[in-house]
């Protein structure tokens, strides 16, 4: 099929998308913006698209999710095209690598291991396989391989997961709660008697232990905080709406009035729940 026909064939699937990307990056006839990009300039868009996928899922916006997944797929295609141009690898290499990894990590599905085991056991097996893969890559430290550019809260969670696998962990959730109280007291002390650098350090320590508490409770902190932010946004918007109905803006109100409206919004949500 001629390239022109492939690009305009709605049923050509992934090959169509790969060809579109190749044409966008063509040095003579492509799009100037796409041609100028490199891995570093595209990486922030890749991260943004992943968050937009998560946002659509959280809102149950299934029609939007189709588009957001397409945007995320396009990021993979974009990076693979740049890699092919640089002689690193192709998109097919990406697909082959991922396929090989999934087959290797699921011997209970694609191999001869027993499939009749709990999700918890499968998770332990998965982590054991990953540990073996890291060993083959000469990653000796327990914390090696946790990406430095992850969102800070998510990275804290993953670092603590890794440390826990080798036994560096509190045995009980109560110990974590006690540590949170200790860190909170140290933050107050820093606020009262130390400088901004020490305050920042103590605040970071408190956040780090809070992430660890989430792990002990089976709560992924990035997800929990995102939901809390969404809840705050929803409730504060309702407060703004109530003020607008009274001919006011938040700037025209005071904390006592907005607090009362907040409590009313919260009570309505609980009644509906």
From TrEMBL:
NTP pyrophosphohydrolase MazG-like domain boundaries: 37-110, 177-235
Family note: Belongs to the nucleoside triphosphate pyrophosphohydrolase family.
SUPFAM superfamilies tied to this protein: all-alpha NTP pyrophosphatases (SSF101386)
Reactions mediated catalytically: ATP + H2O = AMP + diphosphate + H(+)
Organismal lineage: Bacteria, Pseudomonadati, Pseudomonadota, Alphaproteobacteria, Rhodobacterales
InterPro entries to which the protein is assigned, alphabetical: MazG-like_dom (IPR004518), NTP-PPase_MazG-like_C (IPR048011), NTP-PPase_MazG-like_N (IPR048015), NTP_PyrPHydrolase_MazG (IPR011551)
UniProt EC number: 3.6.1.8
Designated name of the protein: Nucleoside triphosphate pyrophosphohydrolase
UniProt-listed GO biological process terms: dATP catabolic process; dGTP catabolic process; dTTP catabolic process; dUTP catabolic process; response to stress; TTP catabolic process; UTP catabolic process
Xref: Pfam families: MazG
Alphabetized UniProt keyword annotations: Hydrolase
Coiled-coil residues: none
GO MF, any single term: ATP diphosphatase activity
């Amino acid at each position: 099929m001629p390239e022109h026909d492939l690009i305009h064939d709605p049923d050509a699937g992934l090959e169509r998308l790969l060809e579109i990307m190749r044409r966008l990056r063509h040095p003579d006839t492509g799009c100037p913006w796409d041609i100028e990009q490199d891995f570093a300039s595209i990486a922030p868009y890749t991260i943004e698209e992943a968050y937009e996928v998560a946002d659509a899922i959280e809102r149950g916006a299934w029609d939007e999710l189709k588009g957001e997944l397409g945007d995320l797929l396009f990021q993979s295609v974009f990076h693979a095209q740049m890699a092919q141009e640089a002689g690193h690898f192709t998109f097919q290499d990406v697909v082959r690598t991922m396929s090989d990894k999934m087959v290797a990590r699921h011997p209970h599905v694609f191999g001869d291991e027993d499939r009749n085991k709990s999700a918890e056991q499968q998770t332990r097996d998965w982590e054991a396989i990953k540990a073996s893969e890291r060993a083959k890559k000469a990653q000796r430290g327990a914390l090696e391989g946790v990406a430095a550019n992850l969102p800070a809260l998510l990275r804290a969670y993953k670092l603590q997961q890794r440390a826990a696998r080798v036994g560096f962990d509190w045995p009980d959730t109560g110990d974590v709660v006690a540590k949170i109280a200790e860190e909170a007291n140290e933050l107050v002390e820093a606020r009262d008697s130390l400088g901004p650098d020490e305050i920042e350090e103590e605040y970071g320590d408190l956040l780090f232990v809070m992430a660890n508490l989430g792990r002990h409770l089976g709560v992924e902190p990035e997800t929990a905080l995102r939901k809390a932010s969404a809840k705050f946004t929803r409730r504060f918007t309702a407060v703004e709406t109530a003020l607008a109905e009274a001919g006011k803006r938040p700037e025209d109100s005071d904390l006592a009035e907005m607090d009362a409206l907040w409590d009313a919004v919260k009570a309505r949500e609980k009644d509906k729940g």
